[in-house]
Amino acid sequence: MFQPSPWRADFPAIDALQRQHQTYLDSAATTQKPQILLDALSHYYGHGAANVHRAQHLPGALATQAFERSREKVAGWLNAVDSQQIVFTHGATSALNLLAYGLEPLFEAGDEIAISALEHHANLLPWQQLAQRRGLKLVVLPLDSRGLIDLNIALQLIGPRTRVLAVSQLSNVLGAWQPLEPLLAHAQAQGALTVVDGAQGVVHGRHDVRQLGCDFYVFSSHKLYGPDGVGVLYGRSEALARLRHWQFGGEMVQIADYHSASFRPAPLGFEAGTPPIASVIGLGASLDYLAGLDAHAVAEHEAGLHRHLLRGLNDREGIRLLGQPQLALASFVVDGVHNADLAHMLTEQGIAVRAGHHCAMPLLKSLGLDGAIRVSLGLYNDSDDLQRFFEALDQALELLR
Ligand SMILES: Cc1ncc(COP(=O)(O)O)c(C=O)c1O
């Protein structure tokens, strides 16, 4: 049965891609953008760009107002207590690097950092590098057979030496919500700071950082139907106050002389230099767009398409799903067919899916794989997109087998 997307027409690029015979099924990598965002960018650049937080003139005041309004919208989106808990970074990756650098003074040799076995490189490598610099132990929490962090083992591995627990909310490979609440509560009871990589999770539903109870939460705007070049680091005020400053320059300083300086607290103390002004304003516009949608209808639509995707994959012989994806995406391999060959043939037929290790090389390796195909869905996808994908898949498999 045809399942249309009520929001497809809001995303002009989907039409443009279709005219180029492209079916976009790679939203977990980045999303297409709603018209409201294009309008916001065009308005900002078309009516006078200006730097923020420094100019007295009218364009500067307007840009600063719009920029700070976006901070408030992000705080509202996450249900943060205060917009001052929202630091703009250049993406989830830079937010996680900021944390791994900023928390470094809290560690002593022999302390531990806990991550999970499914982390994206962005939530693995900054901690791995920190562990190497300071002689720390990186503890990797294993997964159970469903691809979820194994709570029985994880709760034993997180102990009094754990200074930081950093885990993904929703895996970009396995598409499963992780059991964060018991993990975070246990880690905090042990005195650890908790970091949630919300890069994939933030896209689906509303997330309440207070309810989640984490100390830090990070995401990238471009996966949330916003512009690229901007990301968010949310922190509880007490947790942000523990971060050491990381980049130095304009607007983050309180007082500077030639031989010493003092620095502002979060958020501005962690936003050195000119921030991605247009992108921050654009993120605010995308959040307005998302806030105006019927969340229940969105969730139903995404769930319906995901069922269709899983059904189609499960119905075909020789296809092996990775884990037990719950929403938004599915990664798979095909017996006897290399994922790169299959991806190549799908690309030739105008199907935009991702192949490879998905920036989670250790996870793929632990599954005995060097890569997999990932199909991921956005608000704008409809069942015809999946139909085209399955037709292309069948043709490709016929030729490759
Ligand atoms: C789970 C997860 N974490 C972090 C990132 C990094 O995001 P970015 O490349 O936007 O910094 C990604 C991107 O794919 C991701 O899926």
Compact description:
Helix 2 packs antiparallel against helix 10, helix 3 crosses helix 10 and helix 12 packs across helix 14. The protein is α/β, with parallel strands linked by helices.
Can you describe this structure?
This protein has 401 residues and is of the alpha/beta class. The chain has 2 domains: 8-25 and 294-400, Alpha-Beta Complex (Aspartate Aminotransferase, domain 1); 38-291, Aspartate Aminotransferase, domain 2. The chain has 14 helices and 15 strands. Strands 2-8-7-6-5-3-4 form a 7-stranded mixed beta sheet, sandwiched between helices. The protein has a 4-stranded antiparallel beta sheet with strand order 11-12-15-14, with helices on one face. The chain has a two-stranded parallel sheet with strand order 1-13. α7 (180-189) links the parallel β5 and β6. It is globular and about 70 Å long. The protein starts with 11 loop residues before the first helix and ends with a helix. The model has no long low-confidence stretch (mean pLDDT 97). Bound molecules: pyridoxal-5'-phosphate. Pyridoxal-5'-phosphate binds next to α4.
The CATH superfamily of the largest domain is Type I PLP-dependent aspartate aminotransferase-like (Major domain)
Shape: globular
Count of strand segments: 15
Low-confidence spans: pLDDT under 50, at least 5 residues?
none
Overall mean pLDDT score?
97
What ligands does this structure carry?
pyridoxal-5'-phosphate
What series of H and E elements makes up the topology? HEHHEHEHEHEHEHEEHEEHHEEHEEHEH
The main sheet comes to: 7 strands, mixed
Annotated CATH topology of the largest domain: Aspartate Aminotransferase, domain 2
Secondary-structure arrangement, i.e. CATH architecture of the largest domain = 3-Layer(aba) Sandwich
